[in-house]
Design goal:
Mean pLDDT: 87
Shape: globular
Oligomer: single chain
Structural class: alpha+beta
Number of helices: 7
Number of strands: 8
Largest sheet: 2 strands, antiparallel
Number of domains: 2
Order of helices and strands: HEEHEEHHHEEEEHH
Strand order of the largest sheet: 1-2
Protein backbone atom coordinates (compact mmCIF):
# COMPACT_ATOMS: atom_id res chain seq x y z
CA UNK A 1 0.00 0.00 0.00
CA UNK A 2 2.78 2.47 0.86
CA UNK A 3 4.57 1.61 -2.39
CA UNK A 4 1.38 2.36 -4.34
CA UNK A 5 1.00 5.72 -2.53
CA UNK A 6 4.65 6.52 -3.35
CA UNK A 7 4.09 5.87 -7.06
CA UNK A 8 0.84 7.88 -7.08
CA UNK A 9 2.61 10.81 -5.43
CA UNK A 10 5.58 10.47 -7.77
CA UNK A 11 3.44 10.54 -10.90
CA UNK A 12 1.34 13.42 -9.55
CA UNK A 13 4.47 15.48 -8.96
CA UNK A 14 5.93 14.47 -12.29
CA UNK A 15 2.78 15.55 -14.13
CA UNK A 16 2.61 18.76 -12.11
CA UNK A 17 6.18 19.89 -12.58
CA UNK A 18 7.02 18.52 -16.03
CA UNK A 19 3.88 17.99 -18.07
CA UNK A 20 1.61 20.86 -17.17
CA UNK A 21 1.93 24.55 -17.78
CA UNK A 22 -0.49 26.71 -15.86
CA UNK A 23 -3.50 26.97 -18.18
CA UNK A 24 -5.56 29.43 -16.14
CA UNK A 25 -4.44 32.26 -13.89
CA UNK A 26 -4.83 31.10 -10.29
CA UNK A 27 -4.05 32.78 -6.99
CA UNK A 28 -1.06 30.64 -6.03
CA UNK A 29 0.22 30.78 -2.45
CA UNK A 30 2.92 28.36 -1.28
CA UNK A 31 2.82 26.57 -4.66
CA UNK A 32 -0.86 25.62 -4.31
CA UNK A 33 -4.17 27.19 -5.28
CA UNK A 34 -5.36 29.42 -2.42
CA UNK A 35 -2.46 28.34 -0.24
CA UNK A 36 -3.76 24.80 -0.06
CA UNK A 37 -7.31 25.50 1.03
CA UNK A 38 -9.70 22.76 -0.06
CA UNK A 39 -12.08 24.35 -2.59
CA UNK A 40 -14.76 21.74 -1.87
CA UNK A 41 -14.77 22.63 1.84
CA UNK A 42 -16.02 26.15 1.05
CA UNK A 43 -19.26 24.67 -0.24
CA UNK A 44 -19.73 22.95 3.12
CA UNK A 45 -19.49 26.29 4.94
CA UNK A 46 -16.04 25.99 6.52
CA UNK A 47 -12.86 26.45 4.49
CA UNK A 48 -10.14 24.04 5.57
CA UNK A 49 -6.57 23.50 4.49
CA UNK A 50 -6.00 20.32 2.51
CA UNK A 51 -2.98 18.04 2.63
CA UNK A 52 -0.51 16.62 0.13
CA UNK A 53 -2.06 13.22 0.80
CA UNK A 54 -5.10 14.35 -1.20
CA UNK A 55 -3.57 16.46 -3.98
CA UNK A 56 -4.29 16.77 -7.67
CA UNK A 57 -2.72 18.65 -10.56
CA UNK A 58 -5.43 20.39 -12.56
CA UNK A 59 -4.93 23.05 -15.24
CA UNK A 60 -1.23 23.07 -14.44
CA UNK A 61 -1.61 23.91 -10.76
CA UNK A 62 -1.92 21.95 -7.54
CA UNK A 63 -5.15 21.70 -5.52
CA UNK A 64 -5.17 20.15 -2.03
CA UNK A 65 -8.10 18.49 -0.26
CA UNK A 66 -8.91 17.36 3.26
CA UNK A 67 -10.23 13.94 2.25
CA UNK A 68 -10.53 11.41 -0.54
CA UNK A 69 -14.24 12.29 -0.75
CA UNK A 70 -13.44 15.95 -1.45
CA UNK A 71 -10.81 14.99 -4.02
CA UNK A 72 -13.33 12.74 -5.79
CA UNK A 73 -16.01 15.47 -5.67
CA UNK A 74 -13.56 17.86 -7.34
CA UNK A 75 -12.62 15.29 -9.99
CA UNK A 76 -16.31 14.79 -10.78
CA UNK A 77 -17.07 18.51 -11.15
CA UNK A 78 -13.98 20.73 -11.41
CA UNK A 79 -15.81 23.69 -12.93
CA UNK A 80 -18.22 23.81 -9.99
CA UNK A 81 -15.44 24.07 -7.43
CA UNK A 82 -12.94 26.26 -9.26
CA UNK A 83 -12.70 29.67 -7.60
CA UNK A 84 -13.98 32.53 -9.73
CA UNK A 85 -11.26 34.77 -11.20
CA UNK A 86 -8.67 32.19 -10.23
CA UNK A 87 -9.23 32.93 -6.55
CA UNK A 88 -8.14 36.56 -6.81
CA UNK A 89 -10.27 39.20 -5.09
CA UNK A 90 -13.61 39.38 -6.93
CA UNK A 91 -14.25 43.00 -5.89
CA UNK A 92 -10.83 44.12 -7.15
CA UNK A 93 -11.37 42.32 -10.48
CA UNK A 94 -14.68 44.20 -10.83
CA UNK A 95 -12.65 47.41 -10.33
CA UNK A 96 -10.12 46.37 -13.04
CA UNK A 97 -7.42 45.27 -10.60
CA UNK A 98 -5.89 41.91 -9.78
CA UNK A 99 -5.35 41.58 -6.03
CA UNK A 100 -4.55 38.72 -3.69
CA UNK A 101 -7.43 37.41 -1.65
CA UNK A 102 -7.70 36.12 1.88
CA UNK A 103 -8.61 32.41 1.59
CA UNK A 104 -10.89 32.73 4.61
CA UNK A 105 -12.90 35.67 3.23
CA UNK A 106 -15.32 34.27 0.68
CA UNK A 107 -18.86 34.00 -0.54
CA UNK A 108 -20.77 31.26 -2.33
CA UNK A 109 -23.10 33.01 -4.77
CA UNK A 110 -25.05 31.29 -7.54
CA UNK A 111 -23.23 28.07 -6.58
CA UNK A 112 -19.83 29.65 -7.34
CA UNK A 113 -16.89 30.45 -5.07
CA UNK A 114 -15.79 34.09 -4.82
CA UNK A 115 -12.83 35.21 -2.69
CA UNK A 116 -11.97 38.64 -1.31
CA UNK A 117 -9.14 40.74 0.07
CA UNK A 118 -9.32 41.21 3.84
CA UNK A 119 -6.40 42.92 5.58
CA UNK A 120 -5.38 46.26 7.07
CA UNK A 121 -8.98 47.08 8.02
CA UNK A 122 -10.19 46.64 4.43
CA UNK A 123 -12.65 43.85 3.77
CA UNK A 124 -13.75 43.89 0.14
CA UNK A 125 -16.43 41.26 0.79
CA UNK A 126 -18.35 43.95 2.70
CA UNK A 127 -17.97 46.37 -0.24
CA UNK A 128 -19.05 43.62 -2.64
CA UNK A 129 -22.18 42.83 -0.61
CA UNK A 130 -23.08 46.49 -0.07
CA UNK A 131 -22.80 47.29 -3.77
CA UNK A 132 -24.85 46.13 -6.70
CA UNK A 133 -23.47 42.59 -6.66
CA UNK A 134 -25.02 41.60 -9.99
CA UNK A 135 -23.44 44.60 -11.70
CA UNK A 136 -20.09 43.88 -9.99
CA UNK A 137 -20.21 40.27 -11.22
CA UNK A 138 -20.83 41.40 -14.80
CA UNK A 139 -17.93 43.86 -14.59
CA UNK A 140 -15.62 41.27 -13.02
CA UNK A 141 -16.47 38.68 -15.68
CA UNK A 142 -15.66 41.20 -18.41
CA UNK A 143 -12.49 42.50 -16.72
CA UNK A 144 -11.12 39.03 -15.95
CA UNK A 145 -10.62 38.34 -19.64
CA UNK A 146 -8.14 41.26 -19.76
CA UNK A 147 -6.54 40.76 -16.34
CA UNK A 148 -5.62 37.07 -16.57
CA UNK A 149 -1.88 36.42 -16.58
CA UNK A 150 -1.06 40.08 -15.97
CA UNK A 151 0.86 41.17 -12.89
Amino acid sequence: MNEMRFYNTFFLLLAFYVGNAQQLDYNIIDNTVLGGYDVVSYFEGAPQKGTQKFAIAYNGVQFLFVSEAHLEAFKASQKKYEPQYGGYCAYAVAKRKKMQSNPETYEIRDDKLYLFYNAWSTNTLVKWQQGNTTKLQVKANHNWEKLQFKD
